[in-house]
Amino acid sequence: MQMFHQEHWVNTPLAAVFRFFANPANLPRIMPPQTGATLLQTRLLAPPLQAEIETEDSGQLAGSGSEIVVSFRLFPHLPFRMKWVSRIVEFEIDQYFVDVQARGPFKFWRHRHEFLPSDRNGLPGTAIRDIVEYEIGFGPAGDLADRTFVRPSCAEPSHSANKLQSIYFRTRLSTRSSERRRSKGESTGS
User: Fold this and answer.
1) Total structural domains in the chain?
2) 151-161 tens-digit pLDDT
3) For the whole model, what pTM was predicted?
């Protein structure tokens, strides 16, 4: 069994970061770009939320029992795509969630996403911690694939602070622009 840990920090409030990661629509933006990830299907079970933290995006969050189907390139430079079905098995709002592979390229895959309030250099923000346990299988061929593709891909800073900050702000700006357009349409009677 292999294990991988990674931690990044972003200058963004914890609740916003958690909701961004717990919304499967953002998965293709978070995965390494060379995988060409596409979200094919979701079966979302909304997480139990306390009334004081329920938000308009609560129904878009993948709570425990949700299933997510993604298509991606296992080998980045080849046109062959694979389906990966993951299931959310643990979910604690604004703290962590865990996904496991229900069907896909690994013999075993468990990914725990943790979110912690964290100040850096006097700035408030969020520490994002990924803990991945996986097993490829396939004997020596799997070991070679692990050394050649999986470990280097995991070591890439796909969740680098700059990338995450950029994705988050692009998403927020896009959402705000859509809200302004809707607001203007409503106020003019359109």
Assistant:
1) 1
2) 776 666 555 55
3) 0.78
